[in-house]
Amino acid sequence: MLVLLCLLSLCSDSYMYSAKDIKQLKYDIFESRQYDYSIRPSKNFSEPIEIYIKFCVLGINDIDEVNQRFVTSGKLDIEWKDDYLDWNITEYNNISSLSVQHYSVWRPDIALNNGHSSTGNLHLSEFDIIVFNTGLIKWTPYSIFETKCEINTMYFPFDKQFCEVEFVLWTASAIGSRFRKAEVEVSTLHVRGEWKFVNVDASIINNGSLHKTVFKFNLQRKPGKVILEFVLPAVIISLMDLMTFCIPCGSGEKISFTTTIFLALAVYSTVLTSMLPATSSNCILGIYLKAQMVIEACIAIVAALQVRLFHCKNKDKLPKWMLRFCQWSLNHKRKRKIHACDRRVSILSLSVYENRKDNSGCKEENNNSTPHNINFEDVCHQIDRVAGLVFFAFHVLHSLLIVL
């Protein structure tokens, strides 16, 4: 027990130092040695100072699609070797590290290369610097970085974005330094808003006088909120325009209904435009809305012509093309009924079919709609039936083209 207490006392004494020891160490380094922070701290000027940088990302605060801005927060672990800041720890009561103010030692002129509002110094001078007895310098500043990010919204809201944060040695050619190693840490990363973090890569570019480190973030949008609040209502409104052909021409609501649908699509298109940057490529969702607005305009034209025909006097003579259109539509409808009856005959026996022929409604209808008794109201009904099928096919076709 006594031996253990002695060992503990020796260990505690070996790591105990006072403010006097720290003052003496600072005096010897900065006064006796006449340390000059304006001179590159390398005894061999033919070799550049190698800088290690590590970006500890704490949060992705914002991705502004309209202003194309990428905002992150985190700290930088920057390390380099100063040949003039080393000492023997046994001479200073085992002091292995020293905290000094930023203006006391030489620092690499690291700047944000792709800043959104400005490019230049990081303004991180208020953070102290840790000096180790081996000459290793560690600087850990914290800041919020606003960088430019070109947003590609072609596949909105299922898009992926790649945003970069670039750090450059602003006066690298004059002071003789370069980046040697770059790392990134995302263990405490928090992503705000509708984005999901995928990964981040760190790379170094040392090309002549250009020395920079690039941290490339890969992000994916969470489409759930956009689908529920924007895409789904837009699709429902697009399907509702087909209901125009279910409204009778005599109700007086046909034109007002299709105009309301067109205005709703125009509003959604305006809202989508305000959400995306003006310099981005065309969005697939925007193309879908524009195409749907064109279809809706065609539906409005057909509806206006229908209303015009509906209010024509029945005693007026129908044009030949209207008679042919109605005959074609009625014949097509009659053929479908005959095919349906033929399918039913294949299931029922021939005797049962003959007994129930009159009650099943499968008997070929008498052609009551002859060219002599077809009026404008009949023409409008046939237009509703045929145009509804045609525009439904257009809607399905352009939706498949957008998806594929």
Largest sheet: 8 strands, mixed
Q: What's the pLDDT, averaged over the residues?
A: 78
What structural class do helix, strand and pairing data support?
Answer: alpha+beta
What portion of the residues fall into strands of 2 or more residues?
15-25%
The Cα radius of gyration reads: 39 Å
Treating each run of at least 4 consecutive H or I residues as one helix, how many helices?
10
End-to-end separation: 80 Å
Shape annotation: rod-shaped
Q: Helices and strands, in N-to-C order? A: HHEEEEEEEEEHEEEEHHHHHHH
Counting DSSP E segments of at least 2 residues, the number of strands comes to 13
Which ranges are low-confidence, i.e. pLDDT below 50, for 5 or more consecutive residues? 1-14, 335-372
Helix proportion? 25-40%
GO molecular function: extracellular ligand-gated monoatomic ion channel activity; transmembrane signaling receptor activity
Subcellular location: Membrane
GO cellular component, one term: membrane
Protein name: CHRNA7
